[in-house]
Structures are given as C-alpha cells and as structure tokens.
Amino acid sequence: MIAPRSWLPTPVLSILLLIVWLLLARSYAFGQFVLGGALAILIPLLTYRFWDSKPRIKKPFKLLRYVLRVLGDIVTANFEVAYLIANPWRTLKPHFIEYPLMLEERFTITLLASTISLTPGTVSANLRLDGKSLLIHALNVDDEEALIEQIRERYERPLKEIYEC
Amino acid sequence: MSLLVEAITSLLLIAGGVFVFIGSLGMAHLRDFYMRLHGPTKATTLGIGCMLIASMLYFWSVDGKPDIQEMLITLFLFITAPVSAHLLAKTGLHMQLRHTDTTGGKPFELRDEEVGDKPVPHPDKGHG
C-alpha cells in the first residue's frame, strides 16, 4: 500500500491516465487537459489503497530492451503456435510445468506471469499460494528443463536485474 | 493513397485475419480446455496487432497526420489478455477440468486430495 498522505500518491499512474485520456478524447484542447488532469488526480486518490507500492526501476535501459525482446518473441512465437495449430499432422505434447520462482516482489511476479502468458506456447495457470512457484501450461514441450531454463534466462533474470537487483 | 501504402495495408490486414482465424481454429478443435486457452490469448495478440498497424497506416495516409490512438487498444489488450487467461486457467484448475492423457506433469491442483500451503504474506500486514 502507498502512503495515503500525499495528494498525488502515484505520479506515474497520474501521468499515464492523463495521456490515455487525451488520446481517447483525440483532442488537445485546454478543456480536455483540465478534465483529464482532474481525473488523473482523483482516480489515484480513490484507488491508492488497491495498489502495491511499485518497486523502483533500477535500470530503465534494460527495461526498454526487455520490452523490445518480449515484443519480438511474441511475433516469432506466434508463427510457431499458428503452425502448431494449423498443421494437421502434428502431435502436440502439452505439459504442466512447475516453474520455481526466483523473483520475490508481487509486482515483478505479475510482470513475469503476464509475459509468460503473452509469449505464445505458454500460459501461466496458477501462482502457488506460497509465492514460490508458478504453474505453467505449455502447448508443446519436448524438453521441460530447457523451457524452464529459457524462461529463467530470457525473462526472469532481466526482470530481477531491472527491479530487484 | 499510394500503391505501396495500399499494398502494405492490405498485406497487414490479411496477415491479421489469418492469425485471428488460426487462433479461433485452435479454440475450436484443440482437445482440452487448457490447450484451447492458448488460441485466443496468443495468436490473436499478433493478429489484432497487425490489423491495428494497418488501421494506423491507412488513416495516416488518408488524413495526412499520424494518429496513435490505436496504440491504446494494443495497450489494453496486452494488459487484459494475460490476466483473463490466467483467471480462466485458474478456474479450470479449480474445477479440475479434464485434460488429455498425453499431457505431461501432474500439478497438485488436479489431484484429488487436499493440499494447502500458507498464503503469500501481504506486504503491509504480514500473515495477519
């Protein structure tokens, strides 16, 4: 939870809200700035109890690289999944995988789980109650260890460097 | 609108349509709930991405000024798709839906006996 005293508990969220408002309104008139600004201040004030305090980004450039890598992976892996689905002679080997988590913060675990779901071939199915492992369902797995290793090296380690160190 | 822009736009539209179609095809004919989940969450992200880029290109060339409103749709999609997929999968596990026999791995969520563990400590309140 974020300290309730300040009138602007989550500055980044406020800026994001203002930008989204302006883009949705498709106008940059003064009135839209006033309305969007009022919402950008009011909404965080009403919802700050809901938010975890967000860990600080320690390496912004690595974050940029991470986002680009995930986007690239989404594109390439989409082709793979499309091929898997469309190929009538395939034999899929779906697999439930227990992924032991290295991350500790709830926010970063959420990011990792979302990344896993977005990159095709894997869906994060359940975060265990103790927060130490993530259950993943994979569409086609040949080598379980290799998949775990791939997620660890490609996504989890960068996230840990970016947020937790 | 120049021929090149037109060609790129139509290519992107076709690619987007193909991806979305394959995603829905996966949802229709894969064999169990957990596999069907992959179709709509995945293939559609790229499919819709292609269509949105096509839309951006089209309106850029027609109106003459770039408009990034479509990026918002992508943003919302990327935030909501993994969450809904996760919730669906979690529900499936909770209901202990059947999966195909070829599925490897047996998570304890799908076993019959009760297995529990301590909940994640809340960052402010601890285990209270």
From TrEMBL, chain A:
<dbReference type="Pfam" id="PF01899">
    <property type="entry name" value="MNHE"/>
</dbReference>
<dbReference type="InterPro" id="IPR002758">
    <property type="entry name" value="Cation_antiport_E"/>
</dbReference>
<keyword id="KW-0812">Transmembrane</keyword>
<protein>
    <submittedName>
        <fullName>Na+/H+ antiporter subunit E</fullName>
    </submittedName>
</protein>
<keyword id="KW-0472">Membrane</keyword>
<keyword id="KW-1003">Cell membrane</keyword>
<keyword id="KW-1133">Transmembrane helix</keyword>
<comment type="similarity">
    <text>Belongs to the CPA3 antiporters (TC 2.A.63) subunit E family.</text>
</comment>
<feature type="transmembrane region" description="Helical">
    <location>
        <begin position="7"/>
        <end position="24"/>
    </location>
</feature>
<feature type="transmembrane region" description="Helical">
    <location>
        <begin position="30"/>
        <end position="51"/>
    </location>
</feature>
